[in-house]
Specification:
CATH architecture of chain B: Orthogonal Bundle
Largest sheet of chain A: 2 strands, antiparallel
Number of helices of chain B: 5
CATH topology of chain B: Helix Hairpins
CATH class of chain B: Mainly Alpha
Number of strands of chain B: 0
Structural class of chain B: mainly alpha
Largest sheet of chain B: none
Structural class of chain A: mainly alpha
Helix content of chain A: over 70%
Distance between the termini of chain B: 55 Å
Number of strands of chain A: 2
Strand content of chain A: under 5%
Shape of chain A: globular
Helix content of chain B: over 70%
Oligomer: heterodimer
Largest interface: A-B, 28 and 37 residues
Order of helices and strands of chain A: HHEEHHHHHHHHHHHHHHHHHHH
Distance between the termini of chain A: 23 Å
Chain lengths: 499, 124
């Protein structure tokens, strides 16, 4: 066994330990530990990615001393390692991009706790990505929820506590359903490791035994994870949670936390249920329809919103809808598009949240649209970054969002003859127009010149680190948008390893 | 179908309890009642697991008197899962209760709708 194969385990345990250590460190040291951990985990994930791409196959890693049907395992392939690397990059950029606001948002004595939460969040995300055991996945789903709740409520105001409570209630409903689904699956199959469950489920389907419990288990797991990742109509907690938490928290919550659950859903579909069985169940149509509905209603809510951050938050509902639509198509192309959209949305939404904080800074911290008029001139780099994010979300060529929309459309065209092709294309078109309405409206607003503005101006040289982060975000977006072929190829290879 | 329901009455009770807890967590306005609902829901899952792990006529999976046959013991894994699940549900209950205390100190009510109305008034 090669030494690199230990790295997924190292990265999980490293982020967990650094979380515990941060709780006793002063805030500067905690910040250094956090960033060092993220960098190291990023490098380790890159090594695993290189190793799996070179070897062309995934591998399982035995945790403890008990072999396959009894022990616990983690598993790494191209998709897992790539996702871990990507999550690390987004996490570093989001944290550094929000540091200058942290002093205003969080009282000083709680800064090290903030880093504890971030480290725990990272460890649970990594565990969700790598785990090969369903019950372990459940435990880390809960850790993820608790850490995310902490990230929302660490900025102490009435709004955030209510938002955290609402978030917890919806999340707990989701995880209760997930837990029951996992328990029923365990009772049906007698296994907890994904590969064994898949074999057992295939056997059950061939024999035609227990069709109803199996369907219930699939439904509970899928719906549970859908609730947790804020699929329409379970999104009521989302605008408050994203709109009033700290800037970094909003960026991380929207781009990583919900994606962790979606990634687990991909794993469950491919490695637990099996694509064929999932496609033949009715659950896929439910996810498909709610995905389509989310694409429309999320955008409509965003258009009606008067607060820029809540508008971006509602846009997330629409984007999550895209991802579920991709899952619901039930073809490999659809899933590839959905995974690519996970990357696109993570890269773009965090960019939007971070750049939006710069725009509100030069508008007297007001978040409604009138004070924001002309803010693109007062804070140039944030204006440019927000424009890039908006164009990417709308789906203008050159940017990442275009590629994911193209992939969705291609996936739909591949499905000629199935009843799902037309709805996908029509809703994709409508949703793009709706996206354009609210994003382009905002971009025009921030670039409408105002005479004798009384608001202050921030130059790029005053906020060097923040500008650097925004530029890196823009580059990441352009890389995904202009150089998407290797990424798509990697996703395809990774999904091949999943099965 | 009905006969299975009577044979598996333990599982049926667990499912009814799950739905009761679920409905309470979702529909109650009072935060404490929501948390009680959460605990009923989680306990129902543990009851379900324990019920599924038990095999009539067998004993606790602890080797005494040198009996090592698998046939003699019940399945120990659900017990382990229940323990893990209890730890998780205790920690989320604690978190929910601490959130409730925060909200009560700030708004002097446990009703989530009233709190939402007060928030509107604050106009943050």
């Amino acid at each position: 066994m090669s030494f690199v194969q230990n790295f997924p385990f190292f990265s999980i345990i490293l982020s967990m330990f650094s979380g515990t250590i941060c709780s006793v460190l002063p805030r500067k040291a905690a910040k250094v530990v956090n960033l060092a951990m993220l960098t190291i985990v990023g490098i380790l994930s890159a090594c695993v990615l290189g190793f799996t791409v070179a070897s062309g196959e995934s591998y399982t890693f035995m945790m403890g001393h008990f072999p396959a049907p009894w022990g616990n395992e983690i598993r790494a392939g191209v998709l897992e390692a790539g996702m871990a690397l990507f999550f690390c990059i987004i996490m570093i950029l989001s944290i550094v991009g929000g540091t200058h606001k942290l002093d205003e948002e969080v009282i000083e004595s709680k800064h090290s706790l903030y880093y504890v939460l971030l480290n725990l969040l990272m460890s649970s995300l990594l565990a969700l990505i790598y785990t090969n055991d369903l019950f372990t996945a459940y435990v880390f789903v809960e850790i993820n929820t608790i850490a995310a709740c902490g990230l929302i409520m660490i900025r102490e105001s009435g709004r955030t506590i209510v938002a955290a409570t609402r978030y917890m209630i919806m999340s707990l409903i989701g995880s209760g359903m997930l837990l029951l689904g996992i328990c029923i699956t365990y009772d049906l199959t007698g296994h907890l490791l994904m590969l064994n469950i898949k074999e057992a489920i295939a056997g059950l389907v061939v024999d035609g035994r227990y069709p109803a419990p199996l369907l219930v288990a699939i439904a509970l797991m899928c719906v549970g994870l859908a609730i947790k990742s804020a699929l329409f109509p379970f999104h009521s907690w989302l605008p408050d949670a994203y709109g009033y938490s700290t800037v970094s928290s909003a960026a991380i919550l929207s781009s990583l936390v919900s994606k962790g659950y979606i990634f687990l859903l991909f794993k469950i579909i491919y490695r637990v249920i099996g694509v064929e069985i999932f496609n033949n169940s009715r659950i896929i149509d439910v996810l498909f329809i709610f995905g389509l509905a989310g694409m429309i209603f999320g955008s409509v809510s965003a258009i009606r919103e008067k607060d820029i951050r809540r508008m971006i938050a509602y846009s997330s509902v629409a984007q999550i809808g895209y991802i579920y639509m991709g899952i619901g198509m039930g073809t490999e192309f659809g899933i590839v598009a959905a995974v690519f959209h996970v990357l696109t949305h993570a890269a773009t939404k965090s960019l939007l949240f971070i750049s939006c904080s710069g725009l509100t800074d030069v508008s007297n911290f007001e978040r409604s649209f009138i004070p924001l008029t002309g803010s693109g001139y007062r804070h140039k780099v944030a204006g440019v970054a927000f424009t890039v994010g908006s164009l990417s979300m709308v789906g203008v060529p050159l940017f990442a969002g275009f590629i994911s929309k193209l992939l969705f459309a291609e996936a739909a065209v591949q499905m000629v003859g199935s009843g799902k092709m037309l709805p996908v294309l029509i809703v994709l078109g409508i949703s793009t127009i709706l996206n354009a309405i609210y994003f382009i409206k905002t971009v025009i607003r921030i670039y409408t010149p105002v005479e004798n503005s009384e608001y202050r101006t921030i130059k790029m040289s005053e906020v060097k680190l923040y500008s650097l982060i925004l530029i890196l975000f823009i580059i990441l977006n352009l890389v995904l948008g202009c150089n998407s072929d290797p990424v798509v190829e990697m996703i395809r290879q990774g999904l091949g390893m999943f099965a | 179908m009905g006969s299975n329901l009577i044979v598996n009455y333990g599982e049926a009770v667990a499912m009814i309890l799950f739905v009761i807890g679920f409905a309470n967590l979702l529909l109650q306005n009072n935060l404490i009642k929501k948390i009680i609902g959460l605990n009923i829901m989680d306990s129902a899952v543990y009851l379900f697991l324990a019920e599924k792990g038990y095999i009539v006529g067998r004993t606790v999976p602890i080797v005494v008197n040198g009996v090592q046959s698998v046939e003699a013991y019940i399945n120990p894994i659900p017990a382990g899962l229940v323990l893990t699940g209890i730890v998780v549900s205790v920690s989320v209950s604690a978190l929910m209760l601490s959130l409730t205390i925060r909200l009560y100190r700030r708004y002097h009510t446990l009703n989530l709708d009233e709190i939402a109305a007060l928030l509107q008034k604050e106009g943050l």
